[in-house]
Amino acid sequence: MNLKAVVRKRTGGDDLQMTPIMNVFLILVPFLLLTASFVKIAILEMSLPSLSQQAAPQSVTQEQQKQLVLNMLAIRQSGFELKSPTFNFPFIAKKGEQYDFEQLQANLRQIKGKFPDAEDVVIQPEDAIKYDIMIKVMDHCRESGFPNISISG
Question: Which domains does the chain have, with CATH numbers?
């Protein structure tokens, strides 16, 4: 038997069958599309305090004009430091390993009671503060009536 003739005979006559491969893809692609979970990104709207309130006309009285109040909240490893005009809050230390969110919220409500039009808080976290803590602080600020939150480095 001639080996060269056998090799030529086998290599020349076989074609690639595409039908089984196309059938697999016909089933596989819709299955993958149906089982895929698409990523949903949550967006937090943050804005800086507006300075347009200071550019109000002179004829408007100060009672009618909103007062610009800048509240600074520093998140430290050992607790919170809240600064606001006309208020002198003591340092809010941690209770054991947990931050004292109740005291922070009480201080923010005091500010909101004196300045009901104030909506801005600037958060200044330290470098080692976890993202989860920052989100909890932002949630407590929103619950206390401060929806405009900015993060400062």
Answer: 3-35 (no CATH), 71-151 (3.30.420.270)
